[in-house]
Write a structure and sequence with these properties.
- This protein has about 230 residues and is α+β, with helices and mostly antiparallel strands.
- The protein has two domains: about 100 residues; about 120 residues, Immunoglobulin-like (Sandwich).
- The strands form two sheets. Strands 2-8-7-4-5 form a five-stranded mixed sheet, with no helix packed on it. It has a three-stranded antiparallel sheet with strand order 1-3-6, with no helix packed on it.
- The longest helix has about 60 residues.
- The radius of gyration is 42 Å and the shape is globular.
Length: about 230
């Protein structure tokens, strides 16, 4: 009986040792090592992608902040200039919105080389130095407050020989014409073609300035002359 128990115990011990030997084999640890290596590779790739994304986001944010700072600095400089002008008794002019004055050359994109005419309108006053305007009036003029009325425009990439003609109409009837022919190419030039009391009596009523560009209708501006109240 005792010998049978010893034999059964011996079989149990052999079975346990065999099972442990099977678990301690090389296959399972090798498989685990392969999986761990694969996981480490995936983690490394994801870490690299995250780092790249962070770098790109940082660069985008930095560029946006730089642009915003540049615009802010520019606006602050304009504001400081206008404030200084105002304290010196010079009327404030909102440069970025232009207030109707002729914009300078640097405000236009001329890269395509196309001839065009910007800021076409009317005024009663121009600068004699460059015939540019400081403001426009495209509505009503009061008798006694002006000597001449000008059709004004900013010419860009104007070709030599370009004919800029203005037909002045009173109550729908032609009364006068003003003509400018470009002698040479002009990248930027202010145009001012006038009608005055020396040419035609500028009397109350409905008026129009009709532009012909190289003989072709271009654009018309209308205005009213009234007796002063």
């Amino acid at each position: 009986m005792i010998r049978a128990k010893i034999y059964i115990f011996f079989l149990f011990v052999v079975t346990v040792i065999s099972a442990c030997s099977s678990l301690a084999g090389d296959d399972i640890p090798a498989t685990m090592r392969v999986q761990l290596a694969s996981n480490a590779t995936e983690v490394s790739v994801e870490r690299t992608q995250i780092t790249d994304s962070i770098g790109q986001a940082g660069a985008t944010a930095e560029a946006a902040m730089t642009t915003a700072a540049e615009f802010n600095a520019y606006n602050l400089a304009l504001y400081a200039t206008l404030s200084a002008a105002s304290t010196n008794g010079i009327p404030e002019r909102r440069i970025l919105q232009n207030d109707g004055g002729a914009m300078p050359l640097e405000m236009f994109d001329l890269s395509n080389g196309e001839m065009r005419f910007e800021q076409v309108g009317l005024t009663a006053h121009i600068r004699e130095t460059d015939r540019c305007f400081d403001e426009q009036n495209n509505s009503t003029y009061w008798v006694g407050y002006f000597d001449s009325i000008y059709l004004v425009a900013v010419a860009l990439n104007m070709e030599a020989g370009t004919e800029f003609r203005v037909n002045w109409l009173y109550e729908g009837q032609f009364v006068h014409e003003s003509v400018f022919v470009a002698p040479v190419f002009a990248q930027y030039q202010c145009l001012a073609l006038e009608i005055s009391n020396r040419n035609v009596p500028l009397q109350p009523g409905n008026w129009a300035a009709s532009i012909l560009l190289n003989g072709e209708p271009y654009v018309t501006r209308t205005f009213i002359i009234q007796n002063a109240p």
